[in-house]
């Protein structure tokens, strides 16, 4: 049966690409995009769109009932860097929106939920190399605390009420179509814009700060793939580790220099350095590989070529 999908937070970095992929797959009329503001022409013109505040339970429920929604992808969230500026707003948005969709599923109004978690669930006491699925998790950012708490609630709603909720711990996501906003990993997107526009970039993280990252095409594929897997294969109902690429600002700048030889990078670490220092350098995603056949495709070289080719066209 074709699912009837609602994407909450469809105009953001993940939502804008995921919405178009799901529309191609399931038919434009079966994928309702929603956000607190309007998005790109591609998103607005390719299928139904609703203005919804993810914190307004009645608005979410009315939209679900109006469109007879079966599956909800909840992508509205405040990310790590912005969350440190607005701790209570981050908590309210990230937690209330999750409870709204979990409760709709508990009451049998929707069937399936996708909710993204993040590498931010880990903290300074977590092993940082090849971070295991099950390990110490003592996040020190508000965003990380909301994601860790959310993971516990997802698992609880699954085990107590049978809610079919599925989740991935996204690493930093890199794409050229929509800018990210308010994250610590955002430098790895900004750097490509500045390389093309100014041939120089001042990085807010230090030279050797390694972080797990992933090209957006891989992230969208992973999201669709975990949602399509048979329910019995999804053995982890908190959230799955997802590995991709791991690199430092120094490494990515050297790969960019292979395409733009006069590109230069300088370093001026700010408050985001402490956030990055508390996160893993690389991720072990064996469980995702075993349970739903996950395998990433893009390496740093392939991603850099794709980013520079596409941004050069769209910025010219
Ligand atoms: C952020 O940097 O806050 C996000 C994330 C890793 O979840 N990109």
How would you describe the overall organization of this protein?
It is built from twelve helices and 14 strands. The chain is globular. It has helices spanning 13-26, 41-45, 57-66, 80-85, 87-106, 142-161, 187-197, 216-228, 249-257, 272-277, 286-292, 300-315, and strands spanning 5-8, 31-35, 49-51, 71-74, 112-114, 117-118, 164-166, 168-170, 172-174, 200-203, 211-215, 240-241, 245-247, 264-267. It is of the alpha/beta class and 316 residues long. The longest helix has 20 residues, at 87-106. Helix content is 43%, strand content 15%. The strands form four sheets. Strands 3-2-1-4-5-7 form a six-stranded parallel beta sheet, sandwiched between helices. A three-stranded parallel beta sheet has the order 6-8-12. It has a three-stranded mixed beta sheet with strand order 9-11-13. Bound molecules: 2-amino-3-ketobutyric acid. Residues 79-80, 118-120, 143, 170, 172, 183-185 line the site of 2-amino-3-ketobutyric acid.
Query: What compounds are bound to the protein?
Result: 2-amino-3-ketobutyric acid
Q: What composes the largest sheet?
A: 6 strands, parallel
Radius of gyration: 19 Å
Low-confidence stretches: none
* N-to-C span: 43 Å
Number of helices: 12
SSE topology string: EHEHEHEHHEEHEEEHEEHEEHEHHH
**Computed structural class:** alpha/beta
Helix percentage: 40-55%
Task: Determine the strand fraction and express it as a percent band.
Answer: 15-25%
**In what order do the strands lie side by side in the largest sheet?**
3-2-1-4-5-7
Averaged pLDDT? 97
Shape call:
globular
Number of DSSP strand runs: 14
Family: Belongs to the NAD(P)-dependent epimerase/dehydratase family.
Pfam family, one: Epimerase
Domain NAD-dependent epimerase/dehydratase: 5-243
Protein name: NAD-dependent epimerase/dehydratase family protein
